[in-house]
Amino acid sequence: MDPAEIQTAAAAFEAAAARGEYFPQAWFGRLAVDDAYRILLARLRLRGVVRMGWKVGLTARAIQEQFGVHEPVFGCLLADGFKPSGHVFRRDELIEPGFENELCIVLGRDVPAGATRNDVTAAVARIHPAFEIIEARGDLTRQLALALADNAQQKAFVLGAPIRPDALPELSEVEARMCINGVEAATGRGDAVLGHPFNSIVWLAGKLAAFGETLRAGEYIMSGSFTRQFPLNRGDRVECAFVGIGTVAVSIA
């Protein structure tokens, strides 16, 4: 698709979303993944929203198997989606919600395409234990491109207290212990995220270059989940302890 077609498609997707059609049926099976990313970026420009950073998704093997895909994807973190740990969401305001347990990495310097994991390590300003709150606004498994044009299911990101880079444990060995309503639901390690959470940023920096984007100092990057994705039901209180890093919690009323 050429730039004019991308702009036209972005306007059409925005109009469809305004009437509650997040995966426009007219586009089923018609959209290439790279064009979906371009449409997403064009949609955000049309809205004039504040982008705080990026999310990397489908990084853990458990989630790739869950959704039948074999490579990561990216989406955008918007300012109106930022929430502190302990935030209470209202179920009636969410569309088929779920969550993933992740690290949110805040950059202290730019990370260009071609950066190594060592470059990323040097660029990190701080890290937060985090949840990504997702909405299943359509069938990601059958219509991945439409899901990407719809910002890869992103709804919100919930951050716990930060930890400085000099206080970090070895991230590939960090265990995440996830509890739902006080019952342990899953555990996972940092090496489930492409071998190391910083590898998500290496991948993202290279991927964004194709779309004229660069990772900038001050941006927030959600690394990808340590475990599979879980649904979020009314009355749930979920908590994840990242050993040696900290804890994040969220509830739904």
Q: What topology emerges from the helices and strands here?
A:
Blueprint: H1 3-18, H2 33-47, E1 51-57, H3 61-67, E2 73-78, E3 82-84, E4 88-89, E5 97-107, H4 117-123, E6 124-135, H5 144-149, E7 154-159, E8 175-180, E9 183-189, H6 197-209, E10 220-222, E11 230-231, E12 237-242, E13 246-252
Parallel strand pairs: 1-10, 3-7, 4-13
Antiparallel strand pairs: 1-2, 5-6, 5-10, 5-11, 6-7, 8-9, 8-12, 12-13
Helix pairs in contact: 1-2
Could you please describe the fold and organization of this structure?
The protein is of the alpha+beta class and 253 residues long. It has a single domain, classed as Fumarylacetoacetase-like, C-terminal domain (Fumarylacetoacetate hydrolase, domain 2), CATH 3.90.850.10. The protein is 25% helix and 31% strand. The protein has six helices and 13 strands. The chain has helices at 3-18, 33-47, 61-67, 117-123, 144-149, 197-209; strands spanning 51-57, 73-78, 82-84, 88-89, 97-107, 124-135, 154-159, 175-180, 183-189, 220-222, 230-231, 237-242, 246-252. The strands form two sheets. Strands 1, 2, 3, 5, 6, 7, 10 and 11 form an eight-stranded mixed sheet that branches. Strands 4-13-12-8-9 form a five-stranded mixed sheet, with no helix packed on it. Helix 1 packs across helix 2. The protein starts with a helix and ends with a strand. The model has no long low-confidence stretch (mean pLDDT 95).
